[in-house]
């Protein structure tokens, strides 16, 4: 069968899915990932029916880095029979000022994307690594890059600029926004679940290890919390979110920190992990009795509430609020606490519906509807890839 492979590579995991190309679109066949790279490597893949196809553990030194994970995953994929690979779709976090839509990759484009690595050091190098390898091994298979920044590229320039001399904007120093593939999927999904709401003013909260919010007007991005890099906006697992840039100057000037040291602090040692001193995993923080864990959660909820108010102001009102991604989809306590802070906008939570994670978690009387919608970035990548190879 003709198929599309979707690859989403991160610093400690390599996620992949295979979609069959059918006469009516796409059918998900396999979903898998190699996680715990360098610590507790494990390759797991399941069929669309949930049957386990592989569950293999490795010694840490056997899968020490992403290239090892790519090699082991590719070796297993090569054992599959019946798939004729027509294209590989990749999540690429940063498209910079150059790319506002999915694109077929060649070596020149790959080199250009590599120039944006400093803007997303946790993501971009890992996103590009499997593309390079695939281009070497499967030179005849089209590679498609789908950008997390693309969904936000329709913003008005005065909302995406920083208050710097105009020449900096022309050189690409501007607010890009991220998690665009997730927001694009939720915008489409909302038109199916609640078309009357989807055409109005909606805030979507993508709350996971990385976290941001997006204001949707008529299912299009109007404003978002992230900016030039994926450090901005909400506090995250290991990233601080919005911060006075003067802090960076202070750390360099008064503490003698190098650029590399500041980069490590902001990308790997801050956020929930830095505040709590325990973990960047919300599940561990919620289960902990340590007051530092509670403090980190309080900060997270507070910043989410502030950002929700900012985005509601950008929209000129609010019809609905959507929770998605790992924390948003699975943490009833976090949803409850954020919803409580939205009461001034007219949101009223249904505790029973929230506890079991129903699609609608607001009461019938709530002026702002509250939703829980699972995201599906991989499906969006597959759709974009199919559309592109179908017209190339």
List the helices and strands and how they pair.
Elements: E1 2-9, E2 13-22, E3 25-35, E4 42-47, E5 52-57, H1 66-77, E6 84-92, E7 103-104, H2 107-114, H3 124-137, E8 143-147, H4 157-160, H5 166-170, H6 180-193, H7 195-198, E9 201-207, E10 211-217, E11 220-224, H8 246-254, H9 259-268, H10 271-276, H11 282-287, H12 291-315, E12 320-324, H13 325-330, H14 332-340, H15 351-356, E13 369-372, H16 377-389
Parallel strand pairs: 1-6, 6-8, 9-12, 12-13
Antiparallel strand pairs: 1-2, 2-3, 3-4, 4-5, 7-8, 9-10, 10-11
Helix pairs in contact: 6-16
Structural description of this entry:
The chain starts with a strand and ends with a helix. The chain has helices at 66-77, 107-114, 124-137, 157-160, 166-170, 180-193, 195-198, 246-254, 259-268, 271-276, 282-287, 291-315, 325-330, 332-340, 351-356, 377-389, and strands at 2-9, 13-22, 25-35, 42-47, 52-57, 84-92, 103-104, 143-147, 201-207, 211-217, 220-224, 320-324, 369-372. α6 packs across α16 (377-389). The strands form two sheets. An eight-stranded mixed beta sheet has the order 5-4-3-2-1-6-8-7, sandwiched between helices. Strands 11-10-9-12-13 form a five-stranded mixed beta sheet, with helices on both faces. Helix content is 39%, strand content 22%. With 392 residues, it is of the alpha/beta class.
């Amino acid at each position: 069968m003709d198929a599309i492979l979707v690859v989403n590579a991160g610093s400690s995991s390599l996620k992949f899915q295979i979609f069959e190309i059918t006469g009516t679109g796409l059918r998900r066949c396999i979903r898998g990932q190699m996680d715990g790279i360098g610590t507790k490597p494990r390759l797991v893949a399941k069929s669309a029916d949930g049957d386990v196809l592989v569950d293999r553990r490795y010694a840490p030194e056997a899968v020490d880095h992403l290239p090892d994970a790519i090699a082991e995953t590719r070796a297993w994929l090569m054992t599959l029979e019946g798939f004729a690979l027509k294209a590989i779709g990749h999540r690429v976090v940063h498209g910079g000022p150059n790319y506002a839509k999915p694109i077929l990759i060649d070596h020149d484009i790959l080199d250009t994307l590599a120039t944006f690595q400093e803007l997303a050091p946790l993501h971009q190098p890992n996103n590009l690594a499997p593309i390079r390898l695939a281009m070497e091994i499967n030179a005849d298979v089209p590679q498609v890059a789908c950008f997390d920044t693309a969904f936000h590229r329709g913003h008005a320039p005065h909302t995406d600029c920083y208050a710097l001399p105009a020449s900096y904007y022309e050189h690409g120093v501007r607010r890009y926004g991220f998690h665009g593939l997730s927001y694009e999927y939720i915008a489409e999904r909302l038109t199916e679940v609640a078309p009357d709401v989807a055409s109005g003013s909606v805030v979507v909260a993508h709350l996971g290890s990385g976290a941001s919010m997006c204001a949707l007007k008529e299912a299009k991005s109007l404003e978002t919390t992230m900016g030039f890099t994926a450090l901005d906006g909400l506090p995250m697992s290991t990233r601080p979110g919005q911060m006075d840039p003067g802090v960076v100057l202070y750390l360099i000037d008064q503490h003698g920190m190098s650029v590399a040291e500041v980069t490590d602090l902001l990308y790997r040692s801050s956020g929930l992990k830095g505040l709590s001193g325990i973990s960047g995993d919300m599940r561990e923080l919620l289960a902990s009795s340590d007051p530092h864990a509670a403090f980190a959660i309080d900060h997270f909820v507070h910043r989410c509430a502030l950002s929700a108010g900012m985005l509601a102001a950008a929209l000129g009102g609010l019809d609905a609020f959507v929770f998605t991604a790992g924390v948003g989809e699975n943490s009833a306590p976090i949803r409850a606490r954020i919803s409580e802070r939205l009461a001034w906008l007219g949101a009223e939570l249904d505790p029973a519906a929230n506890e079991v994670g129903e699609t609608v978690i607001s009461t019938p009387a709530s002026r702002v509807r509250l939703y829980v919608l699972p995201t599906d970035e991989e499906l969006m990548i597959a759709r974009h890839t199919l559309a592109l190879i179908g017209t190339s």
